[in-house]
Amino acid sequence: MKPCAIVILNYNGEEMLKTFLPSVCMHSIYDVWVIDNASADGSINFLDKNYPQVLQIKLEENFGYAGGYNAGLAEINGQYEYYILLNSDVEVTADWDLDLITWMQAHLDYAALQPKILSWKDKNVFDYAGAGGGFLDAYGYPYCRGRIWETIEKDSGKYDDVSEVDWASGACMVVNASVFHELSGFDSSFFAHMEEIDLCWRMRRSGWKVGYYGSVEVFHLGGATLDRASPKKLYLNIRNSLSMIYKNESSSRFFKIFVVKSLLEHLAAISYLSQGKKEFSKAVLIAYKDFGERKIEMKKFQPIMDGRKEVARKGKVNLIFWNWKVLGKKTFDQL
């Protein structure tokens, strides 16, 4: 069995591959794979012509981020100890993959790890997706060191550390391959967004730790699939967040969370409407409607413990939005 496969999911991403794949091939020592979600552009021809060393898995339809990775990784199951799941719009740095895998091999109680993720457009600031390691507040809202809600910090070196976190970013995420498959990978019903947070939650419930390793830096463009300020992404985030919380919390705890989230998010829908952003308001309402329909078939997650104990949530914030919007706590060290 080989130590690691670097696996990039692609969908009509020829331009992203042209821009970012050179750094991956230049700086990586492990096998590089591209899982293609039935692209209709020139992605495959580009790879065949310019990167014959990159291994390919061609899917017959677009299964999204979650389903695409599940289907592709199933084809190489048993060949690698670890996967590094890497977005197609990420630039990497020297020794990045070796350093991440060396750390994981020395810390066998960890099932997932992310590096420091900075913005490709401005390499002095953190990226929105993952930044300096991800946490969850008591109501399941994610936040990061280096990014609280819409406030993004400059990289001053204070997150060049190693830290246990609640979730690792899917933009660049090392996962223990056997744990990934044991937990049935990502929830393919999510299609895209929040699936890595859900997976990390299930890992922690099954007794595995999730880590952040700040000595490795990568640079993420972001928005290559969906713009951060799009109704579709808002819809997916709300629907998938509700699904994630429902699966991983007790019924009584979920009810309490649902009441608070429903109030906040329906108030947000009214606010969007007052601003003339009808599509955003509609996205909120449809997300709740679709979650209600999906919930009938949804099953609670059953942890696979094997003698391990559940790893508690590391985020200590009750409601991150209240801290950011009302109390004015804009950076992680103010929380």
UniProtKB/TrEMBL annotation:
Keywords: Glycosyltransferase, Transferase. Residues 6-114 form the Glycosyltransferase 2-like domain. It comes from the Bacteria. One of its GO terms (molecular function) is glycosyltransferase activity. Gene3D superfamilies: Spore Coat Polysaccharide Biosynthesis Protein SpsA, Chain A. Belongs to the glycosyltransferase 2 family. PANTHER family: GALACTOFURANOSYLTRANSFERASE GLFT2 (PTHR43179:SF12), RHAMNOSYLTRANSFERASE WBBL (PTHR43179). This is Glycosyltransferase 2-like domain-containing protein. It comes from Algoriphagus yeomjeoni.
